[in-house]
Amino acid sequence: MDLWWPFAIMPYGEDWKLRRRTFVQHFPPSDAHIHQPKEIHFIRTRFLPQLVKSPDQFMDHVRQLVI
């Protein structure tokens, strides 16, 4: 199973259900407050500086967030 494939943009089906189930097992909704500080730190220290430096490569920067 290719877990790197983001289920958010997959068509709904059995593969989507499997990936979403796996995601929720590892990142339950109740743990959002645990991950949010890490996400904010990453956005502020890596994503935004890259975006300011080269805004024309926006999609490349977004793809780095997913990988």
Question: How do the helices and strands line up, and which of them pair or pack?
Answer:
Blueprint: H1 14-26, H2 32-53, H3 58-66
Structure description:
- There is one protein chain.
- By secondary structure, this protein is mainly alpha-helical.
- It has one domain (7-66).
- 66% of the residues lie in helices and 0% in strands.
- It has 3 helices and no strands.
- It has helices at 14-26, 32-53, 58-66.
- The chain is flat.
- The mean pLDDT is 83.
Mean pLDDT: 83
Radius of gyration: 14 Å
The percent range for strand residues is under 5%
Low-pLDDT runs:
none
Question: Strand pairing plus helix content: what structural class?
Answer: mainly alpha
How would you characterize the largest beta sheet?
none
DSSP helix count? 3
Level of helix content? 55-70%
Distance between the termini: 16 Å
Number of domains: 1
SSE run:
HHH
DSSP, total strands: 0
How would you describe the shape?
A: flat
In short:
The protein is an all-alpha fold and 67 residues long. It has helices at residues 14-26, 32-53, 58-66.
Question: Any descriptors?
Answer:
67 residues, mainly alpha, 3 helices, 66% helix
